[in-house]
Amino acid sequence: MDGKDIEGRVDRMQAQIRNDFPILEQKINNNPLIYFDNGATTQMPNCVLECLNRHYMQDNANVHRGIHTLSERSTCAMEDARKTVADFIGCDDPMQIIFTRGATDSLNQVAFGYAAQYMQKGRKVIVTEFEHHSNFVPWQQAAKRTGAEFVVIPMREDGRLDIEALERELDESVVIVSVTAISNVTGTVLPVREIIQKAHQYNVPVCVDASQAIRHGQMNVRELDCDFLAFSGHKTMGPAGIGVLYGKKERLDVMEPLWYGGGMVDVVGNEDTSFTTIPYRLEAGTPNYPGAIGLGQALHYLQEIGTKEIAAWEKELTDTLEQRLSEQKYVHVLGGNVEKQSVISVVVDGIHPYDMASFLNKYGIAVRSGNHCAQPMLRRLGYDSVIRFSPAFYNTKEEIEVIGDRMEKIISFLKKW
What we know:
This protein is an alpha/beta fold. The protein has two domains: 3-44 and 306-415, Aspartate Aminotransferase, domain 1 (Alpha-Beta Complex), CATH 3.90.1150; 49-304, Aspartate Aminotransferase, domain 2 (3-Layer(aba) Sandwich), CATH 3.40.640. It contains 14 helices and 17 strands. Strand 1 and strand 2 form a beta hairpin. Helix 1 packs across helix 11. It is globular, with a radius of gyration of 22 Å.
């Protein structure tokens, strides 16, 4: 599908898609809202909002705990959502889907519930410089507690991952490799499939942080052959507070629970407790079943539009945005000339990112400024704060033109001072 075909289909669907997101209809500071902070949180379509409202009004009850009608409805809806998630990521068995509080929770569970039991002095855990803190700090802290070596694979000068450095570190002493699929700072698409293949040559499991990549429908766990995969609902048109952890059955079976309580036990005695099977063994307490149900609806929505079409249009927007911003005087696009998806970050000579984001907000343009929970990567790039633009499929090229025009005006104004 070439750019014109993509644009033609999107033009036909754009009005309908925009209407699905009521939040986009508002004005901020008397300007139409232009929401380009989707790397942090995407907006929810009407069908998800209606699904949540309908569940609370008609079916709400605790799951897995009652035989009355509402409890059975609620349980069925949550388990249907588990099946939807499994189908979305190409997992054959819904019981390999764990509902968590978000990607951060998922990654912590892998770090401390799975990997930590194999980590000790003389063994290694590997991450990359591209990681969000959620896929960096848990591994760092688990290594500190166990005496294992914490290895960070660097970014090359051209903006790509140093695959040769990874190859030098891979051996039988590695407990796990954990890597993001798309950088939340530069939008760089990492060679996840290649990383998995190289790691598996040494029987090393690989955990994929799919938070920025999941809505593109390209995270098929069967094809990738990853051992774990994590993502958050609020980055894929779903509610906040719900996340997913996928794991191969043999990995999940040996995971130790981090949380204990109701729902995850089998027999509780005064001296000891036995635990139930996966996935419920890792879902202690009352789960966020409304969040899971809303996430299932969100994934249905993405599938109805078409994940390939979404990925293609967001790529088109990303490339257009990168070109528009790179044309501007004083503006530097980060990440080098590499494949990017749905994230573009920039710095502006002499203007602090906070000031630029504040001025853009006066025009109704929502972007993110700061370190984006990726301080090691920003230090590698030579900055402590940048401006991030992250489009989603409901954004338009017209909005990109507005952003470019407003940036030029803001830069011109601030340079006078």
